[in-house]
Recover the amino acids of this structure.
């Protein structure tokens, strides 16, 4: 029910965007959206309404967060192991 | 999937799985999520295999159609039988009411239609001179759309049967159930897109447990679980946003405004759980003329009690997993469901049945 998927804006007419939703062209209402958007932007769409603008930069940022956490935890573990078994 | 927004590469997955293994708690630790879309992503991707033996991850009341009271379904059916064209989301159609589902009422001739959006139901009302009722179910993600169509001057032959619910009060209520040692919440991503990170802050200060908002890609979920386990290990419970590309601190103010304009908070019933204070939405007086109830004379069946042998109430409150139920996969299957959790495509039992259930740990 809370499924929402990214779609790219093709054009905007008043409060309705025409979007490319994984290869399918469909409409999405924009009255549930806070941000200003333009053709080319990505939207998160839920039951025919846009709920959030998505950006490629934020997606890149997400990958960085994953890498940072994994690296931080691995580094903690390595230093703990080094303390436990000094060679 | 749109390129650039699919996060499932195996190298990062392994790095996050390693982090989860390192952060594994010694004592049993129970993480609960409250989102059917999360359960689909977790089960379909087999993510439970990456959890340490000490960690359980369960779906609570995350399937909106599963927690919709049988009485609301009875009411929708009675409206259709009284002449309404009843429109609702596909998930809702087969969920049993007290005597029957919308699907079986349709087979008896009631005009019951599946829509993908509240706006589609309004379009039907605009194009046909029939009384159209939109049976509005769903959490904060879906409620703004119902509000938006009511504020957009729908035709007089359009009305709504509101069964919207809000999630944070249900999360709080679950913590107070006996024998329900919830260690942490994996908070729902798209509900949080609407309500924001700040919506969890108030009650967290009293509860002191990790609440991490998670996305829906495999890496999003592994990342969220790792953050939960790190908070738990470090003894630093807080609200953390593991889905910042879709969730802002303040949420979506436009959508929040739509909800607040049209609805007010009410005490409502959750199937399998009971009445939870301040956990639902009802139309404000200014919009009460859109309420479908007064437009029809309803003939309601006797309200059904609990279903014998069905453990949906325990599954919906995160006190059991589907395979704990003696009916799961035997008497109760998606083709012949006994309880609501086997019907809704986001019900835990339906998901476990479709995707092979739990990985052995």
């Amino acid at each position: 029910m809370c499924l929402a998927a990214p779609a790219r804006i093709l054009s905007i007419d008043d409060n309705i965007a025409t979007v490319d939703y994984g290869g399918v062209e469909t409409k999405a209402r924009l009255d549930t959206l806070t941000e200003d958007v333009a053709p080319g932007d990505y939207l998160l769409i839920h039951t025919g309404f846009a709920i959030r603008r998505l950006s490629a930069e934020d997606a890149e940022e997400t990958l960085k967060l994953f890498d940072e956490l994994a690296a931080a935890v691995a580094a903690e573990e390595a230093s703990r192991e080094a303390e436990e078994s000094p060679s | 999937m749109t390129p650039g927004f699919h996060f499932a590469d195996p190298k990062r997955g392994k790095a996050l799985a390693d982090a989860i293994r390192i952060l594994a708690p010694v004592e049993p630790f129970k993480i609960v999520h409250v989102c059917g879309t999360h359960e689909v992503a977790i089960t379909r991707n087999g993510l439970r295999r990456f959890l340490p033996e000490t960690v359980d991850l369960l779906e609570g009341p995350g399937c909106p159609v599963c927690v919709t009271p049988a009485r609301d379904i009875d009411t929708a059916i009675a409206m259709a039988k009284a002449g309404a064209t009843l429109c609702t989301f596909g998930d809702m159609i087969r969920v049993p009411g007290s005597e029957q589902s919308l699907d079986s009422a349709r087979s008896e001739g009631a005009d019951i239609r599946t829509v993908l959006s509240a706006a589609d139901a309004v379009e039907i009302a605009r194009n046909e001179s029939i009384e159209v009722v939109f049976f509005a179910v769903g959490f904060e993600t879906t409620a703004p759309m119902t509000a938006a169509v009511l504020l957009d001057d729908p035709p007089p032959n359009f009305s709504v049967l509101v069964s919207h619910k809000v999630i944070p009060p249900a999360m709080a209520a679950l913590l107070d159930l006996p024998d329900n040692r919830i260690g942490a919440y994996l908070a729902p991503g798209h509900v949080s897109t609407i309500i924001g990170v700040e919506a969890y802050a108030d009650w967290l200060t009293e509860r002191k447990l990790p609440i991490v908002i998670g996305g829906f890609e495999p890496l999003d979920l592994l990342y969220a679980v790792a953050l939960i386990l790190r908070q738990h290990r470090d003894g630093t419970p807080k609200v953390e946003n593991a889905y910042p590309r879709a969730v802002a601190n303040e949420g979506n103010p436009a959508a929040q405004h739509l909800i607040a304009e049209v609805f007010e908070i009410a005490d409502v019933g959750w199937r399998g759980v009971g009445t939870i204070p301040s956990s639902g939405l009802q139309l404000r007086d200014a919009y009460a003329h859109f309420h479908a109830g007064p437009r029809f004379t309803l003939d309601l069946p006797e309200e059904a009690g609990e279903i014998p042998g069905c453990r949906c109430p325990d599954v919906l409150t995160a006190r059991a997993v589907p395979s704990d139920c003696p009916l799961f996969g035997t008497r109760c299957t998606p083709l012949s469901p006994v309880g609501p959790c086997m019907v809704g495509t986001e019900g835990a039992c339906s998901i476990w049945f479709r995707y092979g259930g739990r990985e052995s740990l």
In short: Chain B touches chain A through 60 residues (CB under 8 Å).
